């Protein structure tokens, strides 16, 4: 088996961040959490991440900004967005920017896992291609 | 030969032995003779010593019979030895002492060879008494007989001195106690001190205490302690007589004044010793103070009442005494001696003459009491009116010897009386004026009788057109139209009337002449005749219909305002829905996710219980967080009564910030709070003040919506101004308010938004004003605006 998948969670809400971390760990994932997009970008494991789960609404740099920035840097890690502000406009922007999923808080854990599996499959496929 | 020799030797030896024996015998006899001669000589000496020793010796047997007595002893008692020998020794004792003597003799015999001493009185032959100290001892005499040998010493003189000394000591102690004077001795060199009983009592020390100068210092009043210590130090240094006064502060808190005096004397050993007396002078001091005080009071009283007292010696024709005020009344200095002539010169001649006549007449009639008035002309030209009261004192010769009197300055009283008369005239005038006013006023006066029926109404009532005609003879509750509607009010009113108490501002409804409903406010008080019989009530009534209507209108208005405040509050909350939904969705998301994580941990092959437990704990925390948000919203959406409680404005700000945080984030506004610590509490309604702060914050956020060229910053600043009021300012850096709008921002329905009622600032202002404060705009140009309000610590305006 290849190296285990590393999931990065970026959310400025501490409770949500900890909860996602908790959920994914209970399912056996290796998770890194970040309180802001900037913090994530400074991470030494930036390029090792297999999937980014990011909040849309964050001060300074939003989740969408982060996606744009990472793509511009040539990083193709799949993105799953979560938001407490369901907004169709943002949703379509996110999906068109290449996000795998766009989940509304509160979301069902199953859906997140499903999105994550999809993302990891795509990532692996992308990596092997 | 041998035999002969032997015999000869035997004989010789025998002879020699005999001769020796005889010689020895004669030697022994001579010695015996010599010894007996010496014995005789000794005995004679001893007997003489015994007989003439100035100590009385008695030798008695166990039964107390005198076996022997020396001559001195017998002579001292006025007896010849032969008169005592063979007699009972009890003969020379007082009858009441006989038992004691027997006991003493018995004791001596029991304790053979031991000495005993006692003091006792002996009786001479002539019946006089002799104090003796007896030293006695029992011993074995010939024939195993026990005898008691007693040596007596005359201590009569010593006893007398002792008694005298004891008596004089007792006298001294008593004298010290009576005079409150203690004595003391103090040897400076040895530090040894002696205090008399009274000295201990004065200082309130146990007489068993060892006296030292430190004891004095310890008891000295703290204010005098330094001075006393200084005196002691000086005395130690200079060793001279001393005298000082100081106070004691005793353990019971009382204060004593002492006067101490001591002389330095030189003892035989050359040391300096102080012998002195200390006197408790508290009573004298207090009397002195009291006297001084009462003198001062009297002088003060005279000064305050402008009354001087004096005494005139009729024979000498001069004043014996004048109090200080008696000089001042004449404009003279009491410190300088002033002649009768000086006083005379201050009284105008005609008055002087009249005084002379009055006094002469009083002397002639020996009048106990007489009064007269006169004027005093002061050097500055002022005239004083003096009223004198005096009485003549009749001397032992039956003639008037002295006149004692008081001078009272009645200038002011006189002027006051004149003023009073003027005031009375003015009062009479004003009474008429008042009557005129009353008759032209809208109020009307009424009077009811003992049965509470209307007896009189002021004449202008009917012209005022307020009351229906024909109310005279009716009871108030027959006139009123609200007796059935408000029975309790009327029950209380009638109880007041039955108790004959005054009443004020009693309001009732009735109808006017035109038949329309009016409200009347009436006040009344009972009145009585000279004997105290209740005659009825008198009072005044006013038509207050207009006021009542205005009050009702105001209440309606306030209710409408409160409704409006609620509506705008809910509207504001509506504007915040998205933010608030986010605030609730965040913890909800965490709850759901943690719940699923918990299931995940439990579903593992080996369930991880501690991780599951941890997940559940987070769920609880987030649940609380969500409910907190809901609580805040509910509080703000509440439509409740205004509740004034002490509030910290910083808490209000924090609550509001908690609700708008997400809104700030989504509008990319950074918030800076500068909250002054420890602000005083202000009385206010929490929800209403939250509404004001929230409105200002929301306005600020909105004003910055179009700002692109600078960071959007909102500042909330709390402080206290220099008169103690709490100050809160919300500053944005938005578009600001135009000059035109500045005058209108607080107007109702003013708005720059497409949505919204435009009531926000108008309501904020009325809320702040209802709290006794004011809301204003401080900066109206770009960049941005500042809205601020101040609230007083105590609500001054209740509207």
What attributes characterize this protein structure?
heterodimer, A: about 130 residues, alpha/beta, Rossmann fold, five-stranded parallel β-sheet, 5 helices, 5 strands, B: about 800 residues, alpha+beta, Beta-Lactamase, 6 domains, five-stranded antiparallel β-sheet, 23 helices, 27 strands, about 45% helix
Topology:
The complex is a heterodimer of chains A (129) and B (799).
Chain A: E1 6-10, H1 14-26, E2 30-34, H2 37-41, E3 51-55, H3 63-72, E4 79-83, H4 88-96, E5 101-104, H5 109-128
Parallel strand pairs in A: 1-2, 1-3, 3-4, 4-5
Chain B: H1 2-52, E1 56-61, E2 66-69, H2 71-76, H3 81-84, H4 98-110, E3 116-123, E4 129-141, E5 145-154, H5 156-179, E6 181-187, E7 193-195, H6 197-203, H7 213-219, H8 222-238, E8 242-249, E9 255-266, E10 272-280, H9 282-305, E11 307-313, E12 318-322, H10 324-328, H11 340-345, H12 349-365, E13 370-377, E14 383-394, E15 400-409, H13 411-440, E16 444-448, E17 454-457, H14 460-464, H15 476-479, H16 487-498, E18 503-511, E19 517-528, E20 534-543, H17 545-575, H18 577-603, H19 609-637, E21 645-647, H20 649-666, E22 669-675, E23 682-684, H21 686-703, E24 712-720, E25 726-731, H22 739-742, H23 760-770, E26 774-779, E27 786-791
Helix pairs in contact in B: 7-8, 17-23, 18-19, 18-20, 20-21, 21-23
Overview of the molecule:
The complex is a heterodimer of chains A (129) and B (799). With 129 residues, chain A is of the alpha/beta class. Chain A has one domain: 3-Layer(aba) Sandwich (Rossmann fold). The model of chain A has no long low-confidence stretch (mean pLDDT 86). Chain B is α+β, with helices and mostly antiparallel strands and 799 residues long. Chain B has six domains: 102 residues, PAS domain (Beta-Lactamase, 2-Layer Sandwich); 120 residues, PAS domain (Beta-Lactamase, 2-Layer Sandwich), CATH 3.30.450; 122 residues, PAS domain (Beta-Lactamase), CATH 3.30.450.20; 103 residues, PAS domain (Beta-Lactamase, 2-Layer Sandwich); 65 residues; 156 residues, 2-Layer Sandwich (Heat Shock Protein 90), CATH 3.30.565. Chain B is built from 23 helices and 27 strands. In chain B, the strands form six sheets. Chain B has a five-stranded antiparallel sheet with strand order 2-1-5-4-3. Chain B is flat, with a radius of gyration of 60 Å. At the A-B interface, helix 1 and helix 5 of A face helix 18 and helix 19 of B.
């Amino acid at each position: 088996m290849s190296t285990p998948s590393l999931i990065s969670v970026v959310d400025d809400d501490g409770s949500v961040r900890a909860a996602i971390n908790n959920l994914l760990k209970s399912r056996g994932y290796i998770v890194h959490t970040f309180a802001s997009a900037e913090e994530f970008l400074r991470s030494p494991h930036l390029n090792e991440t297999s999937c980014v789960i990011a909040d849309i609404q964050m001060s300074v740099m939003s989740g969408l900004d982060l996606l744009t920035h990472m793509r511009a840097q040539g990083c193709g890690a799949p993105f799953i967005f979560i938001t407490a502000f369901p907004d169709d406009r943002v949703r379509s922007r996110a999906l068109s920017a290449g996000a795998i999923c766009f989940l509304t808080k509160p979301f069902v854990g199953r859906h997140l896992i499903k999105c994550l599996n999809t993302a990891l499959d795509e990532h692996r496929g992308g990596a092997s291609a | 030969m041998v035999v002969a020799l032997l015999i000869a030797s035997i004989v010789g030896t025998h002879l020699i032995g005999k001769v020796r024996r005889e010689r020895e015998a004669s030697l022994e006899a001579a010695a015996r003779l010599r010894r007996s001669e010496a014995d005789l000589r000794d005995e004679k000496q001893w007997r003489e010593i015994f007989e003439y020793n100035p100590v009385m010796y008695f030798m008695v047997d166990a039964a107390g019979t005198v076996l022997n007595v020396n001559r001195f002893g017998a002579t001292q008692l006025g007896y010849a030895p032969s008169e005592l020998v063979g007699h009972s020794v009890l003969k020379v004792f007082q009858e009441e002492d006989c038992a004691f003597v027997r006991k003493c003799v018995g004791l001596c015999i029991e304790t053979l060879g031991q000495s005993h001493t006692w003091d006792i009185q002996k009786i001479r032959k002539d019946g006089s008494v002799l104090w003796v100290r007896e030293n006695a001892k029992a011993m074995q005499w010939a024939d195993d007989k026990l005898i008691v040998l007693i040596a007596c010493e005359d201590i009569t003189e010593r006893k007398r001195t002792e008694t005298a000394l004891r008596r004089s000591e007792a006298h001294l102690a008593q004298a010290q106690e009576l005079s409150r004077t203690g004595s003391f001795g103090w040897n400076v060199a040895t530090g040894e001190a002696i205090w008399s009983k009274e000295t201990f009592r004065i200082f309130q020390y146990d007489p068993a205490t060892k006296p030292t100068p430190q004891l004095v210092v310890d008891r000295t009043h703290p204010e005098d302690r330094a001075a006393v210590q200084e005196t002691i130090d000086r005395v130690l240094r200079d060793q001279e007589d001393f005298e000082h006064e100081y106070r004691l502060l005793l353990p019971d808190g009382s204060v004593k004044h002492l006067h101490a005096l001591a002389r330095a004397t030189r003892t035989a050993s050359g040391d300096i010793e102080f012998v002195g007396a200390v006197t408790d002078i508290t009573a004298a001091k207090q009397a002195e103070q009291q006297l001084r005080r009462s003198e001062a009071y009297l002088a003060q009283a005279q000064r305050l009442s402008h009354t001087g007292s004096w005494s005139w010696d009729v024979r000498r024709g001069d004043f014996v005494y004048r109090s200080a005020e008696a000089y001042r009344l004449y404009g003279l200095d009491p410190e300088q001696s002033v002649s009768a002539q000086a006083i005379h010169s201050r009284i105008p001649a005609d008055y002087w003459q009249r005084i002379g006549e009055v006094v002469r007449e009083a002397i002639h009639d020996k009048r106990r009491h007489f009064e007269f008035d006169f004027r005093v002309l002061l050097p500055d030209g002022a005239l004083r009116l003096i009223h004198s009261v005096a009485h003549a004192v009749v001397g032992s010769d039956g003639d008037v010897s002295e006149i004692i009197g008081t001078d009272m300055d009645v200038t002011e009283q006189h002027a006051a009386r004149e003023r009073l008369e003027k005031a009375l005239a003015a009062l009479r005038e004003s009474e008429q004026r008042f009557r005129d006013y009353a008759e032209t006023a809208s109020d009307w006066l009424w009077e009811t009788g003992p049965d509470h029926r209307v007896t009189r109404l002021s004449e202008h009532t009917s012209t005022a057109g307020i009351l229906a005609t024909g109310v005279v003879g009716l009871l108030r509750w027959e006139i009123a139209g609200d007796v059935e509607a408000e029975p309790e009010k009327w029950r209380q009113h009638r109880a007041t009337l039955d108790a004959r108490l005054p009443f004020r501002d009693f309001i009732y409804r009735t109808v006017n002449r035109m038949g329309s409903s009016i409200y009347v406010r009436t006040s009344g008080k009972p009145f009585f005749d000279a004997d105290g019989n209740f005659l009825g009530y008198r009072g005044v009534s006013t038509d207050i219909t207009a006021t009542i209507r205005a009050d009702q209108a105001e209440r309606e208005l306030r209710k409408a305002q409160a409704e409006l405040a609620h509506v705008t509050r809910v509207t504001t909350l509506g504007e915040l829905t998205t933010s608030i939904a986010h605030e609730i969705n965040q913890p909800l998301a965490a709850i759901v996710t943690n719940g699923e994580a918990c299931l995940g941990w439990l579903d593992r092959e080996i369930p991880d219980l501690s991780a599951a437990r941890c997940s559940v704990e987070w769920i609880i925390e987030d649940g609380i967080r969500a409910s907190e948000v809901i609580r805040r919203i509910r509080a703000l959406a509440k439509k409740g009564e205004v509740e004034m409680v002490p509030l910290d404005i910083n808490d209000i700000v924090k609550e509001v910030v908690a609700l708008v945080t997400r809104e700030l984030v989504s509008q990319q506004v950074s918030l800076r709070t500068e909250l002054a610590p420890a602000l005083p509490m202000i009385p206010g309604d929490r929800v209403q003040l939250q509404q004001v702060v929230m409105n200002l914050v929301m306005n600020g956020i909105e004003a910055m919506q179009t700002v692109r060229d600078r960071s959007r910053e909102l500042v909330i600043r709390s402080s206290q101004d220099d008169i103690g009021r709490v100050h809160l300012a919300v500053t944005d850096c938005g578009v600001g308010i135009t000059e035109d709008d500045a005058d209108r921002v607080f107007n109702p329905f003013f708005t720059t938004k497409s949505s919204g009622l435009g009531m926000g600032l108008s309501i904020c202002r009325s809320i702040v004003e209802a709290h006794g404060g004011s809301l204003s705009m401080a900066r109206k140009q770009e960049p941005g605006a500042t809205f601020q309000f101040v609230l007083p610590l105590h609500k001054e305006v209740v509207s």
